[in-house]
Amino acid sequence: MAQQLGGFRVYFPNLIFKIIPDARLSKNQAAFRVPLHVNKLDIKDYLANIYNVTVTDVRTTV
Known about the structure:
Belongs to the universal ribosomal protein uL23 family. The protein is of the alpha+beta class.
């Protein structure tokens, strides 16, 4: 889905990321629940572009 905004096309992701609290993770790590069709590259791009964070590693499990 895209909207026109002042000459720029703005894309709104159709993804739902749910953060999962996990005491075993260090303070610079996070766990998310994402849809099964989302791959590692999608996760990295989403977090980097939407939240402006540096993603160094993505691990997935089903």
